[in-house]
Amino acid sequence: MSAQATDVTPAPSAKGALRRRLPGSLAWHLGSLAILAVILYPVIWVIGGSFKESGDIVGSLDLFPGDPILSNYTSLTDGIADISISTFFFNSLLLAVGSVIGIVVSCSLTAYAFAKIRFAGRNLLFTLMIGTLLLPYHVLLIPQYVLFRNMDMINTYTPLLLGKYLATEAFFVFLMVQFMRNLPRELDEAARLDGCGHFRIYWSIVLPLCRPALITSAIFTFINSWNDFMGPLIYLNEPGKYTVSLGLKMFVDQEGLANYGGMIAMSLVALLPVLAFFLAFQRYLIDGMATSGLKG
Amino acid sequence: MQQDGNAEKRTGRRTILKAAGASLAVAGLGATATACGGGSGSGDGTVTIRYSWWGAEDRAERINKTIALFEKKYPKIKVKTDFQPYTDFWKKFNTQASGGNPPDVFQNAIGFLRKYDAKNVLLDLSEQTEAGNLSMDGFRAGLEKFGEIDGKLLGVPVGSNSMALVIDKPVHTRAGSKPEQGWTWDDFDEAMTRIRDRTGRAGDSGMYGVMYLYDLYLRQNGKAFFTEDGLGFSEADLTAWWTKAEKGVKSGLFADPKKVAQIKPKSALSAELAGSEFTWDNFTVRYTSEGKSEYGLAPIPTTDGKRTGQYLGSLMLSAYKRTEHPKEVAQFIDFMVHDPEVAKIMGYDRGVPTTQAQYDAYQPTDPVNKAIAAYEASLVEAGVLEQITPHPNGADICEAAFLRIAEEMALGERSVEDAVKQFFSESKTALAG
Predict the structure, then answer these.
(1) Residues of chain A positioned with their CB less than 8 A from the CB of B96
(2) Which residue in A244, A248, B85, B340 has the most C-beta neighbors within 10 A?
(3) Last residue of a domain, one of B321, B340, B362
């Protein structure tokens, strides 16, 4: 009863405030919606396109098909060029998960060394490592290819994974080093007093505190590996070993019949794992930022 | 095919397991993985050759069927395939060639012959011809000479094409245009004007950027796009060609280049922006699947009423110079160009079959492929086919530059004068390599 009374009293003022704020907030929302529509248009176009006939897709601005068809999706179950679609997804997933494990383990170990251990030449090595960021991928491409060819590793996943296990992704090392430097020194000093060695400090103190940096690296690595085209293109020589990004390219060639419908349907399906991975891990990311924010 | 599908899946899974093992080995030990060593011979005398081409899934399914036939006939040879779209194919091939690991046999085009011959990548197949592993007999219209350069047989043609004017038939009929063998550029201009005036559509999609068409025009006038080692025309020639093009774009005879760029990868013809397009005759198949209209093939306009300057172009199969299995590669190419069953499977996918035996084996039944066959037959009948223009090392880069710079000119980003200069400076660099 009393609740009702208290409800009544603020109502007029709230209404007044609403009336005062209404034009501004309406304009704000309409503006945001307009921008959102522009941003989402291509996405909706692609979704609509996946239900169109191949001939109606390219060159048409219509969002939705006049006569929606499912055959773009059902035809995916037949596979591309005698290879089942699931093969491409399995290969991509294998590479993406393999890359994530490699990056998280190797880059964090390397970062620990750079951030927490004093050793001769540390600054020089760190500078050199940052320097590798400046080398364009295409400069390394052919020397790397020759190297892996001489080691007889072409047409395996090794060239695509090996570097990830050897902490060659300087950006992620850098990210983790910066994160670890901000961790209070007292924590590892306390651990040392309790008799921990480097590995124990790394494993029990630093790694748990670095979770946001690890998750960020994992998300970016997964997405990069899933979308990588040049690497698999150069190193894999058998359609049976192809990844999704290569498989998508099999639908269209300028000389032959182009199956745009199949390509769009498959690219939408190919988005799902990335989306799922991001959704599964982003809450840890936000969680981590919130907790580290409180501490800082 | 059912069986093949299963086999494919089985090998697929096995290689994945191997790869998984390899990646685990890397993860666990940091050791180099040796699980998938790529030896191409094995104990029982079976050899494996690698075969790459550019194309999409449809071509891949056809090629897989022809390979199944080949492996049945030659049980000691296994063929591993690999394919990408055109541009990705050459990116990959270039890396492989630089890294000393190109496929044993691969699809090739005329613009790349001298380039990769200069890089020592292409095998001279004439030794294999002499050894009896590869027959160069029975080719149509002198095509056996097509892949010969400086006396070396660097490529074996698999499917011939020629340039044509692909037209939207109803549009041309409405405009009252009747292209026929021997029509002139004046007739062509008149037809384009009529199409624009009567149908409200541009006459042509943008012929000024098509290197292979400009080549024909030059040949009609006693020149050619390339000589053995350079460009076969002057800056004044190109200025005249592109000045005419600029006028055509402005007056609406050629499709609005902005719109043409927007609807890519669809063609301006099938998107109903233009009534015709100069391209290779086999593109009609693609346009028919893309567009809603009925498409036909019209002859190339002439300067003197006779010469079109045309020649047969062709995709080829080439081999890697240091392949470990030259004999098997030659047998493979031989099978692919001579076996009648192969022609029945491939159809006109890569162009009209180049050997008489394959040409006779496949009779197209659909209207589009029938039209392509009729068009090529009409060229032979009219006696307009000549020797192909030489393609020097760097021809592929010149072709891409020609198309790009012409488009920039049409879009108004460059003046004609500037475009001509840019093309000559870029092609000079490309041809010097």
Answers:
(1) 145, 234
(2) A244
(3) B362
On whether both B282 and B319 belong to a single domain, the answer is no
A83, B81: Cβ pair inside 8 Å?
Answer: no
Task: Tell me, yes or no, whether B31 lies in a domain.
Answer: no
Per-residue pLDDT of chain B (433 residues; tens, 9 = 90+): 334 444 444 444 444 444 444 444 444 333 333 333 344 555 678 999 999 999 888 889 999 999 999 999 999 999 999 999 988 999 999 999 998 899 999 999 998 999 999 999 999 999 999 999 999 999 987 888 899 998 999 999 999 999 999 999 999 999 999 899 999 999 999 999 999 999 989 999 989 999 999 999 999 999 999 998 899 999 999 999 999 999 999 999 999 999 998 888 788 898 889 999 999 998 888 888 888 899 999 999 999 998 999 998 889 999 999 999 999 999 999 999 999 999 999 998 888 999 999 999 999 998 889 999 999 989 988 888 888 888 999 999 999 999 999 999 999 999 999 999 999 999 999 998 6
Same-domain pairing of B343 and B216: no
Is B290 in the A-facing interface, judged by CB distances under 8 Å?
yes
- Chain B residues touching A82 at Cβ < 8 A: 1, 4-5, 8, 60-61, 64
- The CATH number assigned to the domain holding B136 equals 3.40.190.10
What is the residue range of B206's domain? 163-310+373-432
Number of independent structural domains in chain B: 2
- Min Cα distance A157 → chain B (Å) is 6
ipTM of this predicted structure: 0.80
The whole-angstrom distance between B417's CA and the closest CA on chain A is 31
Q: pLDDT of A201-211, one tens digit each?
A: 999 999 999 98
Say if residue B147 is in the same domain as residue B212: no
Question: Is it the case that residue A275 has pLDDT exceeding 70?
Answer: yes
> Closest residue of A to B10, CA-based?
A240
Q: Choose among B12, B86, B282: nearest Cβ to A253.
A: B86
List the single residue in B with minimal CA-CA distance to A84. Answer: B9
- Tell me which chain A residues have a C-beta less than 8 angstroms from the C-beta of B31: none
CA distance A188 to chain B (A): 27
User: Considering only alpha carbons, which residue of chain A is nearest residue B84?
Assistant: A250
- Residues from chain A contacting residue B15 (CB–CB below 8 Å): 238, 240-241
Task: Answer yes or no: do B27 and A162 touch at CB < 8 A.
Answer: no
DSSP chain A: -HHHHHHHTHHHHHHHHHHHHHHHHHHHHHHHHHHHHHHHHHHHHHHHHTTS-HHHHTT---SS-SS---HHHHGGGG-BTTB-HHHHHHHHHHHHHHHHHHHHHHHHHHHHHHHH---TTHHHHHHHHHHHTTS-HHHHHHHHHHHHHHTT-TTSSHHHHHHHHTT--HHHHHHHHHHHHTS-HHHHHHHHHTT--HHHIIIIIIHHHTHHHHHHHHHHHHHHHHH--HHHHHH---GGG--HHHHHGGG--SSS---HHHHHHHHHHHHHHHHHHHHHHHHHHHHHHHHHHHH-
Residue B7 lies in a domain: no
**Nearest CA distance, B8 vs chain A (angstrom):** 7
Band (pLDDT 50/70/90 cuts) for residue A294 is very low
Task: Round to whole Å and give the CA distance between B193 and A2.
Answer: 85
Q: Do B281 and B407 fall into the same domain? A: yes
Residue B169 inside a domain? The answer is yes
Return the amino acid letter for A162.
L
Same domain, B70 and B137: yes
Could you say which residues from 17 to 46 on chain B have a Cβ atom under 8 Å away from some Cβ of chain A? 18-20, 22-23, 26-27, 30, 32-38
Domains of chain A: 2-74 (no CATH), 79-295 (1.10.3720.10)
Is B396 part of any domain?
yes
